[in-house]
Each structure stands twice: as C-alpha cells, then as structure tokens.
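Bug #77: duplicate submission created two jobs. Keeping one. Sequence:
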Amino acid sequence: MSLITHGKAYFSTRSTRRQINREIRRMGKAVARKAPQPDEKQTILAFNASTRITGLSLNAAFAMLTGWSLRMQGARVINFVCQFGMSRCVMGTDRNDVYQVMPCQQCLAQSSAIYHRSNVSKLVYAPNEELAQALQDTNLARLRHFRYEDIPLGDLCLPSMRWVLRRHHLEDDEPTRVLYRHYILSAYKVAMQFDWQVITQSPIAVMVFNGMFFPEATARWVALLRGVPVFSHEVGMRPYSVFFTEGEATAYHVDIPDDFQLSPAQDQQLDEYLSKRFKGDFSMAGIQFWPEMSGLDEGLIEKMAAFKQVVPIFTNVIFDTSQPHANVIFDDMFAWLEKVLKVIKAHPETLFVIRAHPDESRPGKASQESVAAWVQEADVAALPNVVFVGPDDYFSSYEMIQRAKFVMIYNSTIGMEAAIMGAPVLCAGKARFTQLETVFFPSDKTEYMNTLEAFLSAEEVSAPQKHQVNARRFLYYQLFRTSLPFDRYLELDGIWPGFVRLKDFEPEDLLPERSPAMKVISEGLLSGKAFLLPEGD
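Kept job's structure:
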C-alpha cells in the first residue's frame, strides 16, 4: 500500500468513526429526552471496561443498548466508567511492550460518545503505596496467589494475564511480573471504588461484560460478596446476538428442561442452520472463522487408506477465557496432549489427525503458546501415524469426522457437531454441551486414558442415540432460546471485524413490547427471570 493510499484509508476510517459516534450521541440524547424519571429502587450498576478502546464492539453495543432500554422503562442505570482509573487494563495493554503508556485518551473519547447523556460514575486513579510496596520483588508464583485485604487479586487477574499474553503458562520474566503487578494494583482500585458504588447506590443487580477479565471479575467478586446478583454477558451463537446469565458467561451454561424435545418444525429450523455451518458459513462475535472450506485433499485420503483406523484430535486456543472452566480432568490442554502423544506412539496402526483451532493464528490475536509450536517442539509431525493440520488450513472437519472411528476433543464446539453427526466423541475438558450427555466425558484422568485405550482397541466404537438427540437439543437452545438477537439495532461498521454501528431506529424500539430480546433481558435483570426467548421468537 502506497503512502498516499494508506493516508486516504486512515482519514476515511477516522471520518467513519466520527460519523458512527455522532449516531451514538444522537441516540443517547434521544433516549435521555424520552426516558421517564428514573426509579432509584430499580438501580442497575453496569461495568464493561474490557470491550474496546476505540470503536463500538459488539459487547460494548450490547451493554449500551441494554442500558438505554432499561432507562426507557424507568430504571436507573449507573455506568461505572474508567477515567484514567487503571495503570494497565486488558484492552490497553501492549503485550509486546508492557511498559507502553496506555491509550487512555482514545478510550475516553469513545466513552464520551457511548455514555453521552448517561448517568456515569468514574473509576479514577487512587494510589496505594502499601499495596505497591507489598508487590515489590514478588515472583510469579506469589503473584498468582496474591491476596490483599482478603481479596484474591492474583486469581482474579490470572485469566487476563493469560489472554493478553496469549499463553496459558506464563513466563517468569520481568515484563510478565511488571504487568501482573499493574493488574493487581488496578484490580484493587476497582474493588475499592466499585464496592463504594454498591454500598452507596444499593443496586438491585450488577451487569458486567464477560466476568473473567480482571476489571469485571473484580466488580463481580465485590458485588457477590455484598449479596447483589451479578449478570454477565457475552456474544451469542447467532450473528448480532448476546448471551446473558447469572452464572459465568464464558461457561455458557443453559438450563434445558428434562422433558424438552424438538418438534418437527424445530428440527427443520436446526437442520437449516446446520446445512450452512457444515459448509463453513457461520460467524461468531462478528468473525468469519472460515473464509473458505475445501474438501479433503487426495494425498490425505490416500494416507488415511493406509491405516487401520483414523482418529481426529481437535484442539483449542489455550489462552481463551473458556479454558478455566474446561480444566477439570487435566491441568490444561497441553497436559492432555502430552498424555495423548504417548498413546499415539503406542498405536502405529492408527492415523491421528491433529487439528489446530482456526482462531490460533487470528491476526492480532495469534497464540504465543500454540499447538503448532507444541507439534514442532515435540517433533510430533515426524511420527509416521500423525498428520498435523494448521490453523490456516481450511479443509472440512466434517468430512474428516465422517471417516473417523471416533473423535477426540478438549472442549471445542466441533465435539457437539460431531455428536449431531452421530460420531462417537471422547471429550477431555468440560465444555458448554457436557452439561447434557452428548459425548463420552470420563470423570477423571484414569478413566479417560482407559476409555481412550478401549476405543482404540475395539473393532468398532459407536455412540448411543441419546448423544445425538441431546446435542441437537442443546444446540437448538443455544441458537434459538439463549442467543438474544440485536440485529434490529446493529450492523457491521465496515472497519474492523466484530465492530458495529447503529441502524436506524427510534428509542421506543428499545422497549420490551417492541423487542422480544429486550423483554427477556429486562425481565432477567430487573426480576431475575431466565434469559430465554419464548418459543417461536
């Protein structure tokens, strides 16, 4: 790209951003004008410091629109907004240079648009010399378990450290320790100031993004300590949809009635979705994971034919915020892979196809502790009975599943899809769908390794019919009951994947009587009802 072309793109982006923020301010002003006098007995305290720096991300939009909807109903919404309040935050950290000054001015400029004419309480800088002194010369092991005034600050900050540094196993070097100390100091500021908000404002509920990144995780911890319900949100399974829960949003727990079975119409609706997904035609959080999807190449098909059986192994992104929920049998995904590697070497008659998650190499989010690196370091690809498929190889996993004796996963969604296809699935980590009996999910490490050995030695492995039925039940609920659509209000901004702008609508369109999604969210936040769309919506 020439300098002139780059300059034009830069100014075009800035112009579009300004236009988007003008639209946000205009709607914020309209909501403020039309909203009734707020009822202090219906106070919601909202916090989402980890959704964006500039621009309007999906999760920032979900929180903003939900806040507007609540205000249009007469609720009092207090937005806890960072104003230079953290020395380091999740989105503002430069993982390649943790000493880099934070882009606070850009964040404040965006906040001024998002919270225009809204009730804002500021998170401000408040030094604590005693805590800073206690953190001096601390090693990584102590930082991970660091507590102060009985607040588990090290634990609260750990998922953020892993996510920002794009690795599960943190390196005990000075930049890592410096960043961890910054996060702990910042988390303590959040704890003290958010606690004051809870005490003085008496909210009936707290709404946070994700609940795993340290600012929101700390706010959640404080609120729960005070006995205030906390609801977190994440992107849903469908485009422009949000998932709300009183539990942990990244675990995506869904309460499905035991007697729920799909009707013929629901079966058809699910099949229509799956027909697209099995072609790679789907996105999540505004990201299209598969720009293309090809069939298996002839070389791989020929190699598969040379072995007695084929077993695909689907991995995950190690630093993802879903992983703390997953690690119930093994300490982490790589501990699982190390055990599996010994089994691979003991079964030369079996071709194992190890597939890296497509998100592992996403630009700007590439893993620094990757399956690709593990394969290279362990010289796995040199084994004659292993094929490694990198994150940028877009061939169809579904064709591979059709040819497999059984499927191995850690906690990837592909396990649920394989179960829907009727394949036996051996799962090593707790997944969102393991709350129902959808896959083979052993209770401990010994049972897992015994099951794996039994499957490899058996002439045939089959899955019970209930795995397929339950997987379909779960996916239907995830798609059409818990994914609350915001497509009435949002469209892609055309600048960054996963970032959005407002569509044309009126403030009244945010009222529950005009939006099934807003009705569900409002009743959930204000009355504690389940965040489920009614049948047929």
